[in-house]
Amino acid sequence: MFKRLQALAATAALLICSAPGAVLAEQPLDPAMGEIDVEEHLGLELDKSLKFVDHNGKQVTIGDFFDDERPVLLTLNYYRCPVLCNVQLNELTNTLKQLDWTAGDENFRIVTVSIDPREGPKLAADKRESHLKEYGRGNDVDWSFLTGDAVSVKLLASQIGMGYAYDKEQDQYAHPAVVAFLSPDGRIMRYVYGLTTAPNDLKFGLIEAGEGKIGTTVDRLILSCFHYDSSLGRYGPFAFGIMRLGAAFTLVVIGSVLLIYWRKERAQGRVKSEASS
What pTM does this model have? Predict the structure, then answer.
């Protein structure tokens, strides 16, 4: 429930910022605003036949972004959004800059889909260019910005479990702030909520979604010390995992000391044997 409140709080911020100085009592919400929520569909495989248009104007399907090798980080936003989407995508870009991994390079892919069917490739290309410039890792970064018709967009959002609503008065969309992590074969593995995404949340979500195909052994050991808190929609320290890793480290240290001691004793035994002969 708390994670949903986080997402709805972000939407409330959008509505407030859209009409500065307005009295909330004088701004009754459309009944459709009750649809703004996230219903998690963990394990659901996306319909890969859903059709969209990418930032280059090329016809694609959502299935084109799943190669059975790399996990996919998916966001649903829209490119004319004056507040919420800008904040969420800017924060995501800043977090991506803190990771050693780069989108592409056999690590992971990012897909951002506009929920506004009126938007087209030009807006998508401009938005992509601005974020890649801020990302600072070249133009070959594997981050696609898509647009699509109302049916495809609604079906994708429904499968992700994200509800959104169009505010005709403001000519804006209200929607939750959420990032979905999908497996290399297109299954929904994890959700992380909020306008900001911590580097650990991003990294752990990708490792989990990658199902062993991304990250090092050390990364997976570190992940074992963290637990996804479904009430917060984020990762937090996991006491048992930390204790388990600490015990493993202790065994390694003790084993190393015993190995050194054994080798030393063996060497001394050889020296005594040679001296007596």
Answer: 0.71
